[in-house]
User: Which sequence fits this backbone?
């Protein structure tokens, strides 16, 4: 596991004093290095390990009451050796649950839209080469209306910190629902391979906390 001893000190300095730009830079460099190391780890998984992990993910989720009781669920289509949700999506659709996928906002930088998906949804590739539903106003759902948002991630720790691909998409898109007291907030669940666990991740003020992390071998409730 990767260690970050001075993480909290650096994070506190970065948030409290706008003049400490070199510490902010250090934090950005740390995040970048961690991203590279953790992405390398998941890219080394064999095809067999990926298949097996995806099946175990569904088994883990089937044990969770909050998953079985959910109706409107956002997931993702795997990219860059992420743990695949394909079995989970298929099972949800078979059980007549509503599935949503993230779509890059056509205008607002860093913003995600959540669009309803099923087997017949017309798809396109976004600028990262990830398949996403074609935008249709009638199939959009405000994130506050979702029961669960399953998030892809590059790294996680058992405190519920998440390191993503570095675009700030999920942090930006969920800021309003997480921080607004009168909006219902969906459960935020990270999905990851076991090898994506770090001992302590550096945090920045905008980082959205996870409520749980599911891996093929465990469910970590925060
Ligand atoms: N499967 C999946 N879907 C997702 C995300 C994700 O992390 N995984 N996202 C989570 O936010 C959003 C897309 N964000 C992404 C951000 C960067 C890269 C990426 O591959 N970056 C390349 C550089 C690509 C470029 O600049 O052209 C890289 O870092 O190597 C991919 C997705 C929405 N959909
Ligand atoms: N709520 C926010 N408001 C404004 N800018 C933000 C917000 N969240 C993140 N950002 C910007 O996005 C950049 C990337 O953030 P971060 O490194 O936390 O991304 P990430 O969580 O790894 O990415 P992703 O969520 O796309 O997987 C930050 O440098 C920051 O400038």
Assistant:
């Amino acid at each position: 596991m990767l260690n970050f001893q001075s993480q909290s000190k650096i994070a506190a300095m970065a948030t409290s004093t706008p003049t400490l730009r070199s510490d902010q830079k250090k934090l950005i460099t740390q995040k970048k290095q961690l991203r590279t190391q953790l992405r390398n780890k998941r890219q080394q998984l064999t095809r067999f390990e990926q298949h097996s992990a995806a099946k175990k993910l569904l088994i883990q989720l089937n044990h969770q009451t909050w998953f079985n009781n959910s109706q409107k669920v956002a997931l993702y289509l795997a990219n860059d050796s992420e743990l695949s949700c394909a079995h989970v999506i298929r099972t949800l659709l078979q059980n007549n649950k509503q599935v949503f996928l993230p779509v890059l906002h056509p205008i607002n930088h860093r913003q995600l839209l959540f669009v309803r998906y099923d087997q017949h949804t017309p798809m396109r590739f976004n600028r990262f080469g990830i398949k996403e539903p074609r935008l249709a106003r009638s199939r959009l759902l405000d994130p506050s209306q979702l029961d669960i948002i399953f998030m892809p991630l590059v790294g996680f720790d058992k405190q519920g910190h998440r390191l993503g691909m570095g675009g700030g998409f999920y942090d930006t898109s969920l800021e309003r629902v997480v921080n607004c007291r009168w909006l219902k907030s969906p459960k935020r669940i990270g999905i990851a391979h076991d090898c994506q666990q770090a001992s302590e991740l550096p945090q920045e003020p905008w980082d959205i906390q996870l409520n749980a992390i599911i891996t093929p071998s465990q469910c970590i409730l925060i």
About this structure: Confidence is low (pLDDT under 50) at residues 1-17. The CA atoms of residues 134 and 207 lie 28 Å apart. The two ends are 19 Å apart (CA to CA). The longest strand covers residues 98-104.
